[in-house]
Design goal:
single chain, mainly beta, seven-stranded mixed β-sheet, about 55% strand
Amino acid sequence: QVQLVESGGGLVQPGGSLRVSCAASGFTFSTYYMSWVRQAPGKGLEWVSDINLGGGATYYADSVKGRFTISRDNTKNTLYLQMNSLKPEDTALYYCVRKGYGSYDYWGQGTQVTVSG
């Protein structure tokens, strides 16, 4: 069955960096676009970033552009999100999401990122 398992979240000071990962299994990872979506406390879901099949095309929300970098390693079935210059407003539960045919069809359990000093 499809599994997406995030890791790497934690507590970081403003201005710091963190890399979260998502280990995928149960499907052919290299044949799906992947996304990161976050949810801040008390708020709705916010799309963060997308990456295409080979990793050559990436897309970002304006709120993270220039600070976050999405990448993937299809040999390891792993998705990454490198987060630099973190701000308190980046505090959220970060989800790894598979993009199926026009929709998000599988979600991980999320990894908590807290930016506080």
